[in-house]
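Researcher: Next entry in the queue.
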Amino acid sequence: MYGFSRFYKYPLPLLFLSLWLVAVFLLSNKPAHSQHPGIFNKEKYQSTLLAKRIMPSTLTENVRKTVLENGLTILTKEVHTAPVVTVQVWYKVGSRNEEPGVNGIAHQLEHMMFKGTLNRPIQFGRLFSALGSDSNAFTSYDQTAYYGTVERNKLKALLVLEADRMQNSQIEPEQLANEKRVVISELQGYENSPEYRLNRAVMKAVFPNHAYGLPVGGTKADVEKFEVEQVEKYYRNFYSPDNAVLVIVGDFQTANTLEIVKETFGKLPKKVRSELAVSVAERELGVRSENTFTSSPSSPIVLQEPGAGRLLQVVYPLPDANQPDVPALDVMDYILTEGRNSRLYQALVESGLASEVTASVTSLRESGWYEVLVTAGSKQDLKKIDSVLSSAIANVAEKGVTSEEVERAKTQLTADVILSNRDITSQAMRLGTDETTVGDYRYTDRYLAAVRLVKPTDIVAVINKYLTKGARTVGFFEPTQKQITEVGDKPDSAQTTENFSPGVPVLPSEVVKYLPPVDLATDAIAQVLPQEFKFTNGLRLLLLPDHSTPTVTLSGHIQAGTEFDPENKAGLAAFVADNLLNGTNSKDDLTIAKLLAERGASLDFQTYREGVHIEGDSLALDLPILLEILADVVKNSTFPAKELELHRQQTLIDLQHELDEPSEVARRVFVQSIYPKKHPLHTFPTEESLQQIQRRDVIDFKAKHYRPDTTVLALVGDFDLDIVRSLIQNEFGNWEVSGQAPTLKYPPVSMPQKIVSVNPVLPGKAQAVTYMGYTAINRYDPRFHAALVLNQILGGDTLSSKLGAEVRDRQGLSYGIYSSFQAGKNAGTFLIEMQTSPEDSSKAIASTRQILQQIHQQGVTALEVETAKRTLMSNYNVLLANPEELTDRILMNEVYGLDKGELHCFTDKIQKVSLTQVNQAARELLHPDQIVVVTAGPSVLAEKSIR
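Model: Structure for this entry, 947 residues:
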C-alpha cells in the first residue's frame, strides 16, 4: 500500500490539484473557422459558459487552516456538491526518514496501523467497511497518509477512529510477524517487474547517500529483521498531533466540525521533545537536509535478468519542490514526452526504435529527479536508443522550442490536473501533499501562477542546467530469456492436507461493539436522473448537467468487443479501437493529437469482451471540440497502413510484456481453462494471430461493428442540456446504419467436474498470483443483488471480508485477496484473486477453499448480511459523488437495458436482500469442489502440487 510515485505528468506535490481553477490562458482559444452546420451552437455554447463562469480566484480560496494547541494542523474545505466527506491524516514521515538496515519501517508501520488499538482490539479495516468508508493508506517519500471517504453523517465516526489510532495503536508480536509476511508478499509483487528492479538499481546510484535512493516499500532483508521495539519506537517518535496534518473536505459545516476535531484530537498530547531531540531522532533514521547526488557513472548500469523486453531508464537529479525552476521543468516534460507531437515520441516511437516512452518530474521536500523510461522496439539496440534520446534532448537545447509548444504544454498540464481531480478525495490529497511536502497548502496556487509565466527561453535554460550528459544516470535492462515456459494442464481432484485452523473468527457483533456512534439521520440524496434521447439512427444519449465544476466527463460504449474476434485473428477488435485516432478523411493523427492537446482534452478507446469503452474528458468550454473529434474518428477513420504497422509492432512488444506478468498469465490461462475452444471468450491474442491481421480486416470490422444503433453516449458535467443535445445531433446525426447489428449467442458452459489445477511457470519471478473460479451469473440473474451481498461478506474487501480476515490478516499469507461476481450481458465469472509468496500458495489456496466450503454448507449470519448491505449502500453513495464513476454507472445501466431509475434504485434493491436469499445464493453459487485454480509464478511452484 505504499505510493511508488512514478510517471505522473505533473510533480508529486501537484498530483492532487483541485477542480477550482480555470487558468486565464485556457480561455483564449481562437474561434473555429469551420463551415460545420453546428458552428452557431458551438459559439453559443462557449459564450454561455463564459457568461456563467464564477470561480474562486485561487485553488485554496475557501480553505481554512487551524492549528490546535497540541500542534495538530487542520485544513478544512467545504464542498457541498454531494452529501459525502473525506477525512485524511497525513504524517510528516516517510521513506525519507530511513536508512539501510531499517528500510521499509514507515511502510511496515502503515500496515500495522490497521491492526487495532488498546481501545479497539480489532482490524480497523472491518470498522471502516462497516461505515461504508472508501478507506486506504499509502507510504511515500516524504509522508504517510490514511484516508477515508464516507457519507457525511459518518464524519465524526471517522475522526474518532483516526484519533484513536494516532495515540493507541498496539504493535503485537504475532500480528507483526504475520504482517511482515504480507509486506514481503507485496514487495515480491513489485520485484516481479523488471521496470521496478531497474529503477531500484538506478535510483541507488543517483542517491547513494540519501534515503531517496532506497525503495519506498523497503527490502525483504530489512523487513524480515524488524522487531516490535523498533516499530513501536518509530510510532512513538513520529505519530503525534504535532507531526500530523488533518484534512477534511466535503459536505460539512466548518465551525461544528472544528469543535468535533478539538473534542477528539485536542486531548492528544504532543511529543515532549525539544527541537534538538527531534533533530537527533531524525538523524538516527537517516534524514539528510542536503541534496547529495552521486557522480554519474561513466557507463550504464546493466541488469541482465529474466524478462520480456529491453528497457532504458535515464534519471537526472533535480532541485526540491520549492525551487523556482520546477514549473519550467514540468512544462519541459510535456514538450518532450506528452502525446504524439512530443519531441521524444517523434524521435523514438515514430521511428520504430521504441514502443513506448514515458517520463515524469518528481519534486520532493529535499530534492527531485527527472525520470525517462523507454521500452525498446523489437530487436532494437539500447545504446542506439540512448544515443537518439540524448541527441533529441540536445537538439531542443540547441534550437529551442516554439511559443506554440510552450502554450500547448501549459494548457495540457493545467487541464490534466483539473480533469484528474474532480472528486473530494483528490482535492484533499492535494492539500495534504502540499502541506507535508513543502509546508504550505497554498503551494499549488504559487506553482500554477509560475507555470503561466514560463517562456520558451526558460525551457532551454532548464535543459542546459539539468539535462546534461554528465548529470544523468543510465540503466539498461537486458532480458536473458523468454519468460513463460510450458504451461502444464494437470487436472487433479485431490485435496491438500494443510493444517488450516480458522481460529476464533471476529464476530459481526464485535464490529458493532467497537464502532463509534453514527448519526442515524439519513441523508437525502438528490434523485436527479439523466435525460435520455434516442436519435433516428439508433444512437442513444444520456445527459446529466452538473455545474459544480467547469468540466465534462464523457463515457461511451460501442458493441464491438473482443467477443467478435475471429479465432485466427485474435486481437482484431482491439486493433480497430486502438487505431481510431490515427487519422480520418480530413485529419491525420498528428492533427487530431494537436487539437486535443491544445485544449488539454483526452479521448481514449478501451476494448473489453462485450464492447469498446470510450473515455473522454475536457474543460466545459472545449466539449464541442471533443465531440467533433469523437464523431469524426468513429465515422471516418481511415487506418493508414504505416500507422497500422507501427501499432502492430507496439502490440507485439506489449504482448511480450504481458506474458511476463504473472497476473496476466494467470488471467489468460484461467479464462481459457474455464471456456472451451470455439467459445467467444476463449480466444486471446498471440503473436501469430496479430501477424495475421491485415488492413482490410480492420476496415471491414470497423464497418460491420461500429454503428450508431449499438452505441451509447453518457455525459455528466457543466453544460446546457439543449445545446449539447443539438451539438451531438449535428455531429452524429448523419452516421448511417445499414442492416441488422451483428449478434452473438454464447454457448452454455458446464462447471468443472472436479478441482482443476494449472500452473504456468515464469522463471525469475518473486511472487505468485492465483486465480480461482468458474462460470457464474449474468447481470439479469434474479440472484444478482443477493450475490453482491454474499460477495461482500466473502471477499469484497481484503481487510474486512472472511477471506481477507483469515488468509491475509490472521495468517499473513497474501498481500491482497479479493472475490467478485463479474456479471455482464452474457454469462459471467466468479473469481477469487490473490498474491502470495510462492511457498505460501498451497496453504492460501487450501484456506480459501475451506472458507468457501464453510459458507456453502453453513451460510452466513443475519448480522453479516446487514453489515454487508450497509457497506454496499454507503459505498454506492460515495461512488456517485465521483463524476467519472457516476458517468460510467449511467452508461452501463443503459447498455444493460436497465431502467434509468436504476441509478437511485440500486440501494433499495440491496436493502431488500434477505438472509434467506444470501444463503440460497451461497448454496447455488459457491462450488469449492468444482473449481479451476491457476497459479502463475516462479519455478519453485513446479516442484509442488498446488491443489
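Model: The chain has a mean pLDDT of 87.
Researcher: Noted, moving on.
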